[in-house]
């Protein structure tokens, strides 16, 4: 019902789009219209589906032209629309690449809503695919961005809609239902909620379809953000030797090349992953 209502509003708005031509609002409205049309596609009969696909292709063509002139404003819109189209047509490997590129592109902009939306739709994609751990990581990232932005109602809606993905955050669910105070709006998920081992296992299960390095880079970035750290290093035990698998800092810089052996104090890597408060890192 919500998809139908949103699509109806967008279709009505398209009639008046000429009145705001030349503004950023016009292409942004087209972007949202395309996303709502895509969301409604599976529920439409064949004739309506063909009409919507034609409309989506037209919007995508316009946004691709604009992205050529101003990629920082429109590139992530194009990538997210393509990801959603691949999602509904079952092209999972291609959809995953588009989602990850959309997130990366959005992170290089100042558009907070777009960053959050890219993460949320990526999380929904992983839910549909049956990858709950990857879904939770992206949904948590989206939740954090929405909350830092002050979109409390949206955070509450996410917790209710994706309740099974936030099952362990009972304190956050209670807080969202009660309403957040201004000084609580930047509160983020604890890094304890990011199950590093499960994410790695999920990454390995789809290693044939994606570049593992991309997943690892995304993983340690999420871990760093959740912990509020300035640097994140992922080390793996390879035959009794600790090897750097991924490394990043707040500026996205890599200081240690992947595959480099690292000497670390024995207690760091002998702790069980399930009882650690954060992922092991090398200074």
Give an overview in words:
By secondary structure, the chain is mainly alpha-helical. It has a domain at 1-109. It is 61% helix and 6% strand. It contains 12 helices and 2 strands. Strands 1-2 form a two-stranded antiparallel ribbon. Strand 1 (231-238) and strand 2 (241-249) form a beta hairpin. Helix 1 (2-14) packs antiparallel against helix 2 (25-40) and helix 2 (25-40) runs antiparallel to helix 3. 34% of the residues are buried.
Helical segment tally? 12
* SSE string: HHHHHHHHHHHEEH
Shape: elongated
Alpha-carbon distance between the two ends: 51 Å
User: How much strand?
Assistant: 5-15%
> Based on DSSP secondary structure assignment, what is the total number of beta strands?
2
Low-pLDDT segments: 180-195, 265-283
Radius of gyration from CA coordinates: 20 Å
**Helical percentage:** 55-70%
User: Major sheet: order of its strands?
Assistant: 1-2
Average pLDDT, rounded to a whole number, is 76
- Which structural class is indicated by helix and strand composition? mainly alpha
Largest sheet: 2 strands, antiparallel
